[in-house]
Amino acid sequence: MKMFTVFKALAVVGILSATLGNAQVAQAASDEDAIKFRKTVMKGVGGTMGGLKMVVQGKADMANAAALANTMAAYASITGGLFPKDSDFGDTRAKEDIWAKPAEFKAAVMAFEKAAENLAKVAAGGNADALKGAFGGLGKSCGGCHKPFRKPKT
After folding, report:
1. Residue 55: closest CA among 134, 140, 116
2. CA distances (Å), 20 to each of 71, 78, 118, in order?
3. Which domains does the chain have, with CATH numbers?
4. pLDDT tens digit string along 67-110?
């Protein structure tokens, strides 16, 4: 069962890498589709974060850490492209500051990418204590974007 989970997570990483690569996400067929795509990816980020949290808390096998961390790094690599011009309307919690302050937003996304890459490196080492620290850094980077650039739930 554990090996199946690891292989399943590795398959997700492979699919993300092959499908999305490190290139920017292409403009969606419509701006509405861009928002739907962004929400779908962010739900994946949240799910991956939840899995990592369980590993860090000792509620899931440490053997899953590397695959989850690599998945998070893949998500992080495309995050900046999830906010194309004209996708700031409709059913979205994205604040206007994403487009009004592009340098600040880019810096927040780069912090997320760096934290996710660090997490992947640490997870490959298999040290649970080091993973906790890297996970904390990842969480901080998430807040560094959510607080200034995401509207609260209504």
Report:
1. 134
2. 12, 7, 20
3. 2-149 (1.20.120.10)
4. 999 999 999 999 999 999 889 888 999 999 999 999 999 999 99
Q: What is the pTM of this model?
A: 0.81
Residue 143: its pLDDT value, please?
Answer: 97
Work out the mean pLDDT of the chain and round it to a whole number. Answer: 87
